[in-house]
Amino acid sequence: MKHIWIIGAGRFGKKAVSAIKKCYPESSITVVDHCPKACEAIAESALTMVCMDGVSYLNRYMMDADEPDWIIPVIPVHLVYEWIRLRLLPDISIVPVDIPENVRRSLPNVFPGNMGEIFVSNASFVCPENCSEPRDMCTHTRMPRKQSLYQAIAALSCNGFLNLVLQSEQLAPGIGGITPGALFNTLAAVRQFPESILLSTACRCHGVVQAFRKII
């Protein structure tokens, strides 16, 4: 794991930096945030700090599936959706649409976002910050784990929607990441599908879901 981009320098960005440095001390870390105060608070010689909008940074500097090795999203927006929206311009625009009601009803502990997205979770409690995300058991309740959320979303019936789910993979306790390859594969699927799309990023317990349609 050579190069990791952490998108966000707030509380969870700081946590991600600490966890990645501990688990992968030889890795190169770039942290991106639009807030100058957040950038100043997290700046240190052991990492590269970039003070600009995180989605714009991805759109400008992530050119292929080989760099960086991992992206850790820790900002309160659906990073994958926002990156795809910018990447498709100017030829294609995408606009949010209502998430189908049957999808909302099928998902656990739904919390609405500010851009039409919903945040969902298998947990009705605050998870331990150092959760190791074991496959079969919840670290908080010690009970058998429910179906992984990314699998549950992928299995949903979404009439008229292409259902795309990116799995966030755990890189360190409580820290999940996605690869550029997964992003570019999802972008290719969005380009090819002509109609409405349900796009989700999820790990075993938590996720964000966005519905949109393309305007060509």
Please give the structural blueprint.
Elements: E1 3-7, H1 11-23, E2 28-33, H2 36-42, E3 48-51, H3 54-61, E4 70-73, H4 79-88, E5 93-96, H5 101-106, E6 111-112, E7 118-121, H6 149-154, E8 161-167, E9 169-172, E10 175-177, H7 180-192, E11 196-202, E12 206-215
Parallel strand pairs: 1-2, 1-4, 2-3, 8-11
Antiparallel strand pairs: 5-12, 6-7, 7-12, 9-10, 11-12
Brief descriptors of the model:
single chain, 216 residues, alpha/beta, Rossmann fold, 2 domains, six-stranded mixed β-sheet, four-stranded parallel β-sheet, 12 strands, globular
Question: Can you describe this structure in just a few lines?
Answer:
With 216 residues, the protein is an alpha/beta fold. Helices cover 29% and strands 28% of the residues.
What is the approximate shape?
globular
β-strand amount = 25-35%
Subunit organisation of the chains: single chain
What share of residues is helical? 25-40%
Poorly predicted ranges: none
How much is the average pLDDT?
91
Q: How many domains, in number, for the residues?
A: 2
The largest sheet is: 6 strands, mixed
Output the helix-strand order: EHEHEHEHEHEEHEEEHEE
The total of beta strands comes to 12
Number of helices: 7
User: Roughly how many Å is the radius of gyration?
Assistant: 17 Å
- Cα end-to-end separation: 38 Å
The secondary-structure class comes to alpha/beta
